[in-house]
Design a protein that fits this description.
By secondary structure, chain A is of the alpha/beta class. The first copy, chain A, has eleven helices and twelve strands.
């Protein structure tokens, strides 16, 4: 393959001139530019981006670390982050930590070795590294990585209020909800805490089942739904993430519990499969494209060394009325 | 941040010695190694991988190009490819061409500029570049990119035979199938051609509806299922990819067509949501982890300049018996 020397030789100019023209920097005459471009085309020369990256000490790559790419929330989030990065001239390196949790440290190492210019993480903090030592751009989605890492998340408080509003209007008095067990208060827990507080204030019963929030495979979710299927008899309202809500719906049906007549089910996330169900799932949707946009927006500020970065950003949620509550039997999707 | 010069200075050795020790190449005494490593630790030095990549003219990055990462087939495929690449010391750059089909050319350009060492593509050939000119490792999944690009795909002929076998055992005589419209014969079309041939040989009717194979959003699939919902009345067997099969099931239910009693439905792909449905979807599963493994295996051979690479690799399929056929009402998943 032709290199920059071959181009310079054929065009009869110096290597520096070819470099300036290829990078669009500095002044060169139109005549010289034409000679160089002719040589570039004749030789089929392509600048080696590895060399350019070293010169500029940047890779124009942003890493995205997810707990499990087969979970539709994270695949959609990754898609929109990647598309948004592309619009801004960046590429997206992914890291799925599902089968090897210790990959978190490996991926942070890549950030420190300049393989990436920044890192967007959706993974719970589980690393031996001290985050304070990593003087590189990191943005987090819905997870707590310490004060210095901006956290972007949905307005889960509003989400919890929306669910409470539905259950109150439907006259539900016995709520069953599934919430991730966490050691600290993180934003996504708020939806469950808010729901519990509002419903209890109204004199309703709320039973909260805590599950392992780091496990999100279909098999784990199914096991949980199956284990607590008998609790569906004692409830008149169920709140869970979409996947778990789908299995609750299935087990309710198998036990002859009519949805929505006897049991209302409300999901959380707004994932595509809720519409496959019959009736379609009523769910609080996270605005995944907006979460992705906000992440990339903050990341670009960090990469450019901007100081006007907040420690927290919140994105609005909205309701998708399905048929698992009686408000409306038709999905708007 | 400390650089290689700082380390050399503190350890009292040359830059070349530090470089050899960091790369684990060439001979150095244990005493020298210890001095250098002490300096590395004291200074918190990390080798700049951009420099190392330039030296070795490789990035240890493989690109994965997908039509739409929110489609569960492609998110699962990407996950397993990424995990397999990680095991072999490579990273995974993704490119979702959904919203900008012309990104294919941009991504090929990255391959030529050494940003990636190789490219795995799941996208239909739609590029202005002549693939013959790209003298870089490319592997394709289920898509035809010409003779020089190894094509890895499921055994779709066996898949079609399995579906025919089910419909024959169930006594179906009027088959409705949805197949992608393609200009050329590509492996994945074989399942539909094989099903049609076998069923017609048995005297059954087969109606094939051709759809746009490049569109895979939920909205498009729903529109197709809705448009042809009336055809479900005249059929006793339906064959479609899982997502379309899920909507056929939904519309059958809405029209009072009992599944599986009056209508058998068989999906293709084996995606996670088939189990959410009630009854769960009977489907021919593609072995996504094996497809991913095979892709990475062939890619590694190409990167290492191996010549023992075939132009085609086939991966076995298997049946997931659900409740949309009468063979078995319980999912094995």
């Amino acid at each position: 393959m032709a290199n920059i020397r071959d181009v310079a030789l054929m065009a009869g100019v110096g290597i520096g001139t070819v470099s300036r023209i290829m990078n669009g920097s500095g002044y060169t005459s139109e005549e010289t530019r034409q000679k160089v471009m002719d040589a570039v085309n004749t030789l089929g020369y392509r600048p080696n981006e590895l060399a350019r990256n070293l010169l500029q000490n940047r890779s124009r790559i942003v890493g995205v670390m997810v707990p499990d790419l087969t979970h539709p929330f994270f695949s959609a989030l990754t898609k929109y982050i990647e598309t948004e990065l592309y619009r801004r001239g960046y590429r997206c390196l992914i890291c799925d930590v599902d089968q090897t949790p210790m990959r978190v440290d490996d991926f942070l190492e890549l950030l420190q070795r300049n393989v990436m210019d920044g890192l967007i993480t959706c993974v719970d903090r589980m690393t031996e590294k001290d985050m304070e030592d990593i003087q590189r751009p990191i943005v987090s989605i819905d997870r707590d990585w310490g004060e210095n890492v901006p956290n972007i998340h949905s307005d889960h408080i509003k989400g919890g209020e929306m669910v409470a509003d539905i259950f109150m209007k439907e006259g539900c008095r016995k709520i069953l909800q599934f919430a991730p067990r966490e050691n600290q208060t993180i934003p996504l827990l708020m939806r469950h805490q808010v729901l519990e507080r509002i419903m209890k204030n109204q004199g309703a019963e709320v039973k909260t089942i805590y599950i392992d929030g780091t496990k999100m495979s279909k098999d784990y979710v199914k096991k949980i739904a199956s284990k607590y299927a008998h609790c569906l008899f004692e409830a008149d309202g169920v709140f869970a993430s979409d996947m778990l809500a789908a299995y609750c719906m299935k087990y309710a049906g198998q036990q002859g519990i009519a949805v929505p007549e006897r049991l209302k089910i409300v999901g959380y996330d707004g994932l595509f499969f809720g519409d496959f169900l019959e009736p379609p799932l009523t769910t609080v949707c996270q605005d995944i494209p907006k979460l992705a946009f906000q992440c990339v927006e903050v990341m670009m500020k960090l990469i450019q060394g901007g100081t006007s970065v907040e420690s927290e950003y919140q994105v609005d949620v909205f309701l998708e009325k399905g048929g698992t509550t009686t408000g409306c039997y038709h999905s708007k999707k």
